[in-house]
Amino acid sequence: MKVLILMAMVLSFHSASAEVFKCIGKDGKTVYQAKPCQSSDKTVQLDIQANEAQEAAAKARLEALQNEQEATKAVRQEAERRDAVLKNQTESTNALKQSAIAQQQQVEAEQRQAAALERQAQQNNNRVLIVAPPSALPVMPAPVTTEILR
């Protein structure tokens, strides 16, 4: 906004050396214009002289404000670039975290599956043989041995 005001001031200094006519109409209204007034209006020609020192000062202020605006714009663009890089890094970090969580969940599921398979294998290897309790077994007579005398 300051730049626009300053530019308007500079432009007004350039046109300040042009002729300016002050016209007062029949109704009493005052109008300033670059061409002479109509014959029915009261005309006053204003003698406006450009002040070279003021014009140079205004140009210098305009240039300083433009430089300041460019510097501010450069700083803002650099900040936006850094923010974009930070946002990208944050998104990348979040994606890596999600990937690590998914991998951890997969590992845990595989461990649970391995434990279940191991339990199943142990159950298959440790088959229990059920033996009936000993009942009265028939007693076998002791073998008879016969000795032969010689």
Automatic annotation (TrEMBL):
It holds the Pfam family DUF4124. Residues 1-18 form the signal peptide. InterPro entries: DUF4124 (IPR025392). Keywords: Coiled coil, Signal. Residues 48-127 form a coiled coil. Residues 8-60 form the DUF4124 domain. The keyword Coiled coil applies. This is DUF4124 domain-containing protein. It comes from Methylomonas denitrificans.
